[in-house]
Structures are given as C-alpha cells and as structure tokens.
Amino acid sequence: MSKPLNLWGDLPTGEAIAPPTKILAQQGDILEEHSGGLLCCKIKRSEQEGNMILLHFDIVAPLLKNYTFRILSLRHPVEIYPIAMLNRIDASESTSENEEAFLRNLGKILASDRVRQIVAALMAQSKAEMQ
Predict the structure, then answer these.
(1) pTM of the full structure
(2) Which domain holds residue 108?
(3) Any bridge partners for residue 54, and if so which?
(4) Is residue 66 part of a domain?
(5) Are the CB atoms for 39 and 61 separated by under 8 Å?
C-alpha cells in the first residue's frame, strides 16, 4: 500500500513560538520558587469567543484556603498576536503586537508596586498560617 499524498506541504512544528500560556506558566514557576511554595499561579482558560482565546492569570495562596487574586486577563486570536491584556489591578488595557511587546507589557504589570505589595501581603499571611 502506498503512502497517501501529502497535500499540506511542509507543515510548521510550532516549536519556535512561545504561546502566552507557556510564558505565564514560566512566570508562575518563578513566583512559586521565590515564595518557597507559599504562592503559586493558575492559568484559567475561559470559553472561546469565535476564534479568540481567553486566559486569566491568578496568584493563589494555598495556605489561605486557596485565596485567589486575579492579576490579568488576556484575549488573543488563535494566531496569538495581537494580544489584548487587561490589568485587573488598575483596569488598564494594553495591546501587544508581538512577543517582545507582550513580555514588556507583562513585565510592567508583574513588577508593579501594587503586585509586589500583594505578593508580600499574601506571603506574610501564608507564613502566619504556618505558625
């Protein structure tokens, strides 16, 4: 039996693309490592809107009965860019046309004074629960 004719041509593997879920998961891993496991991050996928993917990025404090604080929400097409990002802390919005812009915009939110205050407060409260 002969091999079927490939009408797709050379299909890409997708290995060169870092989807937002991977980037967010890496940032979550960094927070979990920094906090010694006191905090972690969860990525939640909402229902699709046509060809749009909706994601939410939350900080979770397991020792505080899984207290969850939503940091941001993303909306992007299946092709990934442009990404519309809603900062849930101050309700500001940004759009990233490529990965470089997404990393820059995400970094502004994660390194903001308000997020740092939230992380510090959740870590302090989690440590108090351990005593």
Answers:
(1) 0.88
(2) 20-126
(3) 75
(4) yes
(5) yes
